[in-house]
């Protein structure tokens, strides 16, 4: 194929961009056979990432949004299904097409890949002093906007397991959010701190779990699955930050909690909430919970109506 000729200035710029592209892909390990020293290729990891950030997805969505060949996507999904990373089942909206979703193993894989990526990028940035680091990140944003100025990033979120430091975030945000929105006093923050401390002290990784929802690497929500004994699972401390509401984060957290409880052999799930928490109650009701008890009480500095909800698993 005959190469086009350009003026000297553009030729120099083309060479600079191609040189940077080679440097960048080598630096991030993109051209390695497996991504981030994991058992997955770059394209497999891209598909896992997309599925982790979507509530509903069909194969054609991946073909369109990732600009991949339909046959390649089909083969990759089949391979991931054999490895128990994804599951495919008929869509409720259209039985002729299959919805693709991550399994429990797939969600754990997505969280692991996300953690590996964060650690690798953090290691790169830590080699740069703070002033230059900000300049590098700004330069990346400049490149992104220059090459695709109309690009709108879809709001997506990722659910991951808790890690060191997350309980402090949960206590802080629960206390601040309920004080700001409902006027609850510091005794609620103290209660959340006690729940989190007990969770960490007696944590059973086989029967219990905490999930943190993230948007662009920032925590925006949480939920806890706690062993209540006698085959009963407790759903505790559901929280979705105001800026992340409307993305389906709350529903995804509750569904994940229910799904894991079933997988772990619990027979029933119970939760305690308040009548004023309308959005949360709506999520519980749509998930199949039934309100079985209500009681007036004065807690956290205000008068409340506490409610107990249950779900047979």
Q: What topology emerges from the helices and strands here?
A:
Blueprint: H1 8-27, H2 42-52, H3 59-66, H4 70-82, E1 86-90, E2 98-102, H5 104-125, H6 130-147, E3 158-161, H7 166-182, H8 186-201, E4 209-215, E5 218-229, E6 232-240, H9 249-263, E7 268-274, H10 278-286, E8 290-299, E9 302-312
Parallel strand pairs: 6-7
Antiparallel strand pairs: 1-2, 3-4, 4-5, 5-6, 7-9, 8-9
Helix pairs in contact: 2-5, 3-4, 7-8
Features:
313 residues, alpha+beta, Arc Repressor Mutant, subunit A, Aminopeptidase, 2 domains, 7-stranded mixed beta sheet, two-stranded antiparallel ribbon, 10 helices, 48% helix, 22% strand
Describe the protein.
It is a single chain. The longest helix has 22 residues, at 104-125. The protein has two domains: 32-147, Winged helix-like DNA-binding domain superfamily/Winged helix DNA-binding domain (Arc Repressor Mutant, subunit A, Orthogonal Bundle); 158-312, Aminopeptidase. The chain is globular, with a radius of gyration of 23 Å. A hairpin with a 2-residue loop joins strand 4 and strand 5 (218-229). It has a seven-stranded mixed sheet, sandwiched between helices. The chain has helices at residues 8-27, 42-52, 59-66, 70-82, 104-125, 130-147, 166-182, 186-201, 249-263, 278-286, and strands at 86-90, 98-102, 158-161, 209-215, 218-229, 232-240, 268-274, 290-299, 302-312. By secondary structure, it is of the alpha+beta class. The protein is built from ten helices and nine strands. 48% of the residues lie in helices and 22% in strands.
